[in-house]
Amino acid sequence: MAFASPGPTAEELAAYYAGYPVHAGVSPITLKRYDALLDAFEPYRRTNKLIDVGCGAGTFLERAAARGWEVHGTEFGRIPIETCRAKGIAVEEGALDPARYAPGSFDVVTSFEVIEHVMDPGDELRRMHQVLRPGGLLYLTTPNYRCVGHWMAGADWSVVNYPEHLSLFTPRTMKRLLRQRNFAPLRIRTTGIDLMRIRYRKDQGCTGRRPIANSQEDLRKRMEGSAWLRLAKRAVDSTLSLLGIGDHLKAWAVKPLNGDRAGD
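Above: the chain sequence. Below: its structure as tokens.
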């Protein structure tokens, strides 16, 4: 695991995130991925409540609400919060606070590319555990520190980017932390090689994201439009996940029933 020490001050974070982009528009390919995730979440639906920690402009929650989920979110910053509330999404400003919800309220807790932004990821998981019902699902994504993209980019790997990314995991350290916070890991996959990101240096910060995103989306469209490329992608992703070296780490874990411990 890699982490920042000492961490940024509140003033550093405020200055950095003042220019942070809010992506209200999402590609059709991403929407298809959201739908596939929501299909997989169906077996966990009991309370009918889902919360997305760090929900951005709320696109994933919109997709879940269209399927009948009661959706909630947390986020920082005026613009994304106003965007979510304009869509009718119940969003709380700031970090996830279990005191705002009844214990065990949610069937599913999601968090997309958020945990790397926090100084104390263990405390973040503790709070997620409190709001999740026994038997409920936690799904989170984060960059994989032990990945092909990092090896290829070396010291210029843009994911290592202070003060934005403060805690970076490997599959092994993510699994260990989940167990320490009394989650039972179901599976941890590592997929994809973010070739476009390698073209841009980490010191570009937020300003470098637009060309990265545009190039990456063009590549995704080409792959999505070809059956052979989709098949090749599945084969590559399976290999990357088996070796634990894909760029994107995706973790599935459940909160054990009846207070059972997740194990060591």
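The chain has ten helices and nine strands.
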